[in-house]
Design brief:
InterPro entries: GrpII_AminoAcid_Decarb (IPR050477), PyrdxlP-dep_de-COase (IPR002129), PyrdxlP-dep_Trfase (IPR015424), PyrdxlP-dep_Trfase_major (IPR015421), PyrdxlP-dep_Trfase_small (IPR015422). The chain is α/β, with parallel strands linked by helices and 470 residues long. The protein contains 16 helices and 13 strands. Helix 8 links the parallel strand 5 and strand 6.
Amino acid sequence: MNLEGRTVEDLLAEVTRLKEHDLPVRGGQVTAYVYDTGRPEVHEAAARAYAEMLEVNCLDPTAFPSVVEMERQVVGAVADLLGGGHGIFTSGGTESIMLAVKAARDAAAKAAPKLVLPVTAHPAFHKAAHYLGVEVVAVPVDLETYRVRASDVARAIDEDTILVVASAPSYPQGVIDPIEEVAAAAAAAGVPCHVDACVGGWLLPWLREAGATVPPFDLSVPGVTSLSCDLHKFGYAPKGASVVLFADPAMRRRAYFASAAWPGYTIINATVQSSRSAGPLGGAWATLAALGREGYLELGRNALEATLRLREGIAAIPGLRVLGEPESSLVAFAGDGIDVFVLADEARARGWFLQPQLSYAGIPANLHITVTGVTLAGVEALLKVIAESAGAARRRGPVVLPDGLVELVAGMDLAALDDATFAELAASVGVDLRPGKGQPEMAVVNTILDALPAAAREAVLVRFLSTLYG
């Protein structure tokens, strides 16, 4: 990086150059990671409020009372929509989940704490468990509906269980776990129940109002003790915006961290972070206010209509099938005689990003689409691309790996390889990780990962990331 002084114009030109190979964040051609309202004025309001609050530090709310007022309003709006509770504004779903697990762990004070969750629960729970010294007990899901069964959850609970998890919806197939039954099973065992509504929290109520059948899932459900809801997903706020709600204010206090064991300034944190910009809070506050109830309802209607058209359209493409009966605006589809990883590369070559998902726990490899409010305008174009890409993938055939390659990778001591050697290994299967090379085709990589057990997948992914950053 050049640390000599540069003009604003020069810097912004460099930013444009650096973003040359980035996926577009507007327009709906990227079906994961970004959420677009299709309303430039809303994004402008959020960006301006974000910039206005950028240098305000959330570390000390007594120094910056604007933080307290904005957070009260944002958290209050989420609580009003999702059954009440007492909340914390966080940087994202992972931090919201981590605080929920921390609060449950500290409240239970078990020597060997356990977290019971479906195999479809977001990996953020595994991350929280890893950081917080909690054992994960994963429960299988029904392979027809992809929902967890409350009876299986009940059997998995024991005297060391600190928290039970259910999803509304689970990300992989967009289905809602039986929240009422799971929460009842947890309550019967005297265990808290967290609903991961990071995706659905600020979506499902609007879908329900738009005519969709949405079962009860929030803090109004008996036995649900906490809930996470991301505002940078279907709240359409800039990244870094989520809320975790607790039914009991005492549990919210368990999520806090305080330390007076030093001679410096007072330390009391509501989140994992200490110093943090209030920019994301300002962006979320402005987005909620700019869109309002009617704006969210219209976006919900659009997402619902686009989801129905997408499901019908995919089902009509030979060799493709939608997994389960999605109850939100998340759709996953698998291939019969079509390699979905090749399909994803073909779609990428046509300017569209479809998110690959590896097979796991009996669920086949598939492609995931997050349908947002802007998807409706381009849903026919998306279906055309999927159909064309499916045809091309069928003609190309599935990825064929060299004999013994998977066994070679599985048996490697990846920790003994330096990044340069791993980069050479990646290049041997067609993945160039050198800077400036853009996005490589990923079908071969995904096929290798799909053939590996989870622990080996994770080891490869860690090395991939390490090599990418150099």
